[in-house]
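The material for today's practical consists of a large collection of protein records. Read left to right, the backbone structure tokens trace the chain's path through space. An example says more than a description, so a record of this kind follows:
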Amino acid sequence: MNLENRISAFVELGEQLSTHKFTDEFYNKVESNNPWFVKENIIFAVQELSELLTKEKLTSWLSKYPDLNNNKEIKKVAVITAGNIPLVGFHDFLSVLISGNAILVKLSGKDNFLLKEIANLLIEIEPKFAGRIEFSDAIIKGFDAIITTGSNNSAKHFNYYFEKYPHIIRQNRNSVALLSGDESEERLFALADDIFKYFGLGCRNVSKLFIPQDMEIGRIFESFNNYAHYLNHNKYANNYDYNRSIYLMNNIKFLDNGFAILREDESYASPISVIYYQRYTDVNVVKQELEANSDIIQIVVSDMSEKFIKFGKAQKPDLNDYADNVDTIMFLTGL
């Protein structure tokens, strides 16, 4: 397969995903395996993928990698996926295959069905991919390079075990939002999506807010209302109840709207159902702090700089929005 064939296959995959309907039995199986993977979030994840897989977007993305057009030896790239949000490993899956390589996937036990289902669709579209896609539940071996995503602890182990292979080893990062205080109601509702989509479990979910000293915090709480139904989700509700109880017992000040908690804290990584916030008087000081901590920040959501992500776009990454700012295609073409 040449690059044009590979692009065409993924374009067709995008078209099929835009109308594809999983059965209720399949949704129930996925949610039974991981209760965080509710139907509405799976549908959202699949729809977002379908909107990325257009000929225009794929061609534009890959145009800056001229080496992709050259015939080269196929490398087998192992990919160890995370399981925090549905199909979080798809971008690596796409990158390995679109670059002309073969993939060996070890799925997280928390997301053990969705990517396999999509791989089957891709193979139906282009049977030549069958020889380039392999899933393994065992110890992976026989690969030329590896891409892993996991916690900070797992990253230490991965660095040790895979140090002799070309690798990308990702670890925990968090995302933040920088507010000016002049955001419209529409912007704040979009910010709620950035915070709560996928229950806040993604590394691109905003877990920390920087807000001006004089901003009315109630404006932010009001924007959360579209996610009040999360309290009906057992695991989310348990986390909310637990965190609220801990704060009450320890006399820790917090703000509460009945399903989410705002707590003033300088940390970046907040628990599920909790959003940290920090007030500022000088926005330039905040920008300097964000720059200094760029190695632990995935994205910054804000209208205050062109380099930041716009409100509502945290869970709508473009193809060239690489995790940890590591260019996966450049890595793969350099093998």
